[in-house]
Automatic annotation (TrEMBL):
One GO process term, biological-process aspect: methylation
Domain of life: Bacteria
This protein's name: SAM-dependent methyltransferase
Keyword Methyltransferase listed: yes
Molecular functions per Gene Ontology: methyltransferase activity
Keywords: Methyltransferase, Transferase
Pfam families in UniProt: Methyltransf_19 (PF04672)
Length: 266
């Protein structure tokens, strides 16, 4: 039934608003009107959305170059504007991708967009429930869990409570093959009083306010994993090699980190 939802007849949708900020076409007038209201409170919202996407693109390019050809994107939104399966297949033509989102309208829209793409599935599930995600028919039919998977948690964990996020991140890596990888981009209020204001605002259509965290708040999530390149860094500037400034230096509002599971490594 969810695939029959008409986007034109729904309230503002966070994934479609995100698409609008990326310059996409998968949004409606009501989404653009809502974005204009958000801009009055946080004029930098568009830049934050584009920062998440820039981080995701850099990570997918890096992983694809290393041979990763399976991806699981949590809180994926609508797969548009150079999304994971499009970008990964430039390097890995056979890349398999599962998108996960909790919102029924977003999932219905996403499924329509990728209906003709082999090796791509959209799962309606909560990213904070790794057991359900990894056991789902969508994941099991598209991804080979006996081989490494790249997990993208881009702009989603700040909508998950402390306890659930702390449990979910290691659970994803523990539930996948050794050598799997995980990337996180996350909002921070460090040096950004405007983001603190947004985090305490009654968002309405944006579901609920984000949790603002810094590396010290999230370090335990990746204990025992090998951090790639700069470790915790400004998500917008993330690169696998060379020095990368922190979000506290750039005041980008976004931390990013990439890690690899190293079980079985001597």
């Amino acid at each position: 039934m969810t695939d029959e939802i008409d986007p034109e007849e729904t309230p503002p949708n966070v994934a479609r608003v995100f698409d609008h900020y990326l310059g996409g076409t998968e949004n409606t007038e009501v989404d653009r009107e809502f974005a204009a209201e958000v801009d009055e409170i946080l004029p930098a919202m568009g830049a934050l959305c584009r920062g998440h996407r820039r981080f995701s693109a850099s990570v997918v390019d890096h992983w694809s170059a290393l041979g990763v050809d399976q991806f699981l994107e949590l809180g994926s939104g609508i797969p548009t504007v150079d999304h994971v399966h499009v970008r990964a297949r430039r390097v890995q033509p056979g890349a398999q991708v599962v998108y996960v989102d909790w919102d029924a309208v977003t999932v219905a829209h996403a499924r329509r967009l990728v209906a003709d793409d082999d090796g791509v599935a959209v799962l309606h599930a909560d990213a904070g429930d790794p057991a359900r995600v990894l056991a789902s028919p969508e994941v099991r039919s598209v991804l080979d869990l006996d081989r490494p998977v790249g997990v993208l948690a881009v702009g989603v964990l700040h909508y998950v409570s402390d306890a659930r996020a702390a449990a979910a991140v290691p659970a994803y890596l523990d539930g996948l093959a050794p050598g799997s990888r995980l990337a996180v981009s996350h909002l921070t209020g460090t040096g950004r009083p405007d983001i603190h204001t947004w985090a305490t605002f009654n968002h309405g259509g944006w579901s609920y306010a984000p949790h603002l965290r810094d590396p010290a708040d999230m370090a335990s999530w990746l204990e025992g994993r090998e951090l790639t390149g700069p470790g915790w860094a400004c998500a917008v500037a993330w690169a696998p090699t060379g020095p990368v400034p922190g979000a506290d230096e750039t005041r980008s509002g976004l931390w990013g980190v990439v890690a690899r599971d190293v079980r079985g490594r001597g």
